[in-house]
Amino acid sequence: MANSNKRVSLLVKISIGFVLGIIFGFVIGPVVPESHVLSAYVMPFVDLVGKIFLRMLMMLIVPLVFSSLVAGTAAVGDVRKLGRIGIKTLVLYLVTTAVAIVIGLAFGNFFQPGVGMNIPAGLTASAREAKAFTDVVLDIFPTNPIASMVNANMLQIIVFALFFGVACIIAGERGKKIAEFFENVAEVMYAVTHMVMSVAPYGVFALIAVTAAKFGVAILAPFAKVIGAVYVACVLHALLVYSGMIGIVCKRSPVWFFKGIQEAAITAFVTRSSSGTLPVTLSNVRENLGISEGVSSFVLPLGATINMDGTALYQGVCALFVAQAFNIPLTLEMQIGIVATATLASIGTAGVPGAGLIMLTMVLTSVGLPIEGIALVAGIDVILDAARTCINVIGDTAVCAVVASTEGEELNS
Ligand code: ASP
Q1: CA end-to-end span of the chain, whole Å?
Q2: pLDDT value at position 216?
Q3: What pLDDT does residue 124 have?
Q4: Which of 21, 131, 375, 386 could form a disulfide with 125 if both were Cys (CB 3.0 to 4.6 A apart)?
Q5: How far, in Å, is the centroid of ligand 1 from the Cα of 281?
Q6: How far apart are CA 197 and CA 202, in angstroms?
């Protein structure tokens, strides 16, 4: 009970930090001149606090993912069961992502955010090229797992950890000892996560204040329709798809679900990184939803890397936005093409800030839209990134709860 009170108060503090940060940023940013002491001294300090919080989250990722994935894989104890969970997870990830893009496209068609902009093709922009699809696939496989860890290449770390965890099962007694060792490492990493999360209210305040100060309210007006389309579609996707999954499969209320993962959702919103949020996501689903270590350490690291419903949805809205802005009619076949490429693009998107914008080039090129369109959304990408990352993370937790339920786990009530 004391523990749950402590968690509630941390959540309240994080929420207060979030709201105060927005107010602080919106007031300071546009109002205070650059030479003022607040802008000259206080803002850089606030920025520093946010950056330190981000780094502390990042510092957890590699050791936590590797140790918990090895421990989780080995804890399943049965290679066949592992295969079953793996297939279920991948299918759910793919289906929810495809539904997200369809919702994104529907909202793009409905809001018509780019209509009337009449931009002639030929505008120059410096968009970074997305990688070829074959390279994305090849990149999943590590040549040197230590190098993958040094570079925090999550997909490669996951692949190696899966091999390692399965091998722990196969290798008998000795494998068990190694799995136990990684279980202990994971446990210690959770303790470090809690230490980092205790300063989250300040980190959240700082991150959101700096973003709000940079953008102000006025800059949002010309892009209100795109921002509105992405945000409303995100909320709808969460309310329909995730609440539906949780209600039908897990037999729990949406309130129970969203309350349980609230810390992770806010952290995702302000850090704009699914990978950075992973430690919080893991601790939320275990402690608040009651999901086992075996399922969560398998499903969530994978999701933080390949399941990006928010990113896919955003790519759907933005593809339509660009087509409308350049007056290019999008046929139904082209829209179906967007569903296919955006699903793949979202899998290849790294769980770091801004990655989805780069992958948008792949989607635009594949359906023959001008990649200069990237320039249109680049200015407000931070605002869109916050919403999509939040949905990316919530999507991982919803699938995690569904997999746990279908594996017969009794979730918290
Ligand atoms: N920032 C997103 C994430 O980490 C990826 C993206 O840019 O779409 O989930």
Answers
A1: 15
A2: 75
A3: 39
A4: 375
A5: 15
A6: 10
Reduced to 3 states (helix: H, G, I; strand: E, B; else coil), residue 412 is coil
Q: What value does the mean pLDDT take over residues 221-234? A: 89
With a cut of 60, say whether residue 122 has pLDDT above it: no
d(CA 403, CA 400): 5
Q: Which residue's C-alpha comes closest to atom 6 of ligand 1?
A: 356
Crossing angle of the two packed helices 79-111 and 224-237, in degrees rounded to 10: 140
Span 329-347, pLDDT tens digits: 888 888 888 888 888 888 8
Secondary structure string (H, E, C) spanning 93-111:
HHHHHHHHHHHHHHHHHHH
Number of Cβ atoms within 10 Å of the Cβ of 44: 11
| Pocket lining: 305 vs ligand 1, CB cutoff 6 Å | no
Q: Could you give the dihedral angle defined by the CA atoms of residues 74, 80, 84 and 86, in that order, rounded to the nearest 10 degrees?
A: 40
pLDDT tens for each residue of 188-215: 998 998 899 899 999 999 998 988 888 7
From the CA of 346, give the closest atom in ligand 1.
8
358 and 130 in contact (C-beta within 8 Å)? yes
Q: Are 10 and 200 in contact (CB under 8 A)?
A: yes
> Which residues, 6 or more positions from 402, have their beta carbon under 8 angstroms from its beta carbon?
92, 245, 246, 249, 250
Q: CB of 104 within 8 A of CB of 312?
A: yes
Q: What angle do CA 353, 356, 359 make, to 5 degrees?
A: 135
Our answer on whether the CB atom of 392 is closer than 6 Å to any ligand 1 atom is: yes
The mean-pLDDT minimum among 123-137, 253-267, 339-353 falls in 123-137
Pocket test for ligand 1, best of 97, 154, 352, 377 (most atoms within 8 A of CB): 352
Tokens representing 349? 């998107």
For 128, the 3-state DSSP assignment is: coil
In contact, 77 and 206? CB cutoff 8 Å: no
pLDDT at residue 251 above 60?
yes
Cβ neighbours of residue 126 under 8 Å, at least 6 residues apart? Answer: none
| Residue 312 in contact with ligand 1 by CB distance below 6 A | no
Rounded mean pLDDT of 278-289? 95
* For range 205-233, the mean pLDDT: 85
Helix (H) or strand (E) holding 393: helix 381-406
307 lines ligand 1 (CB under 6 A): no
What would the two tokens of residue 146 be? 């230590």
- Res 343: pLDDT: 87
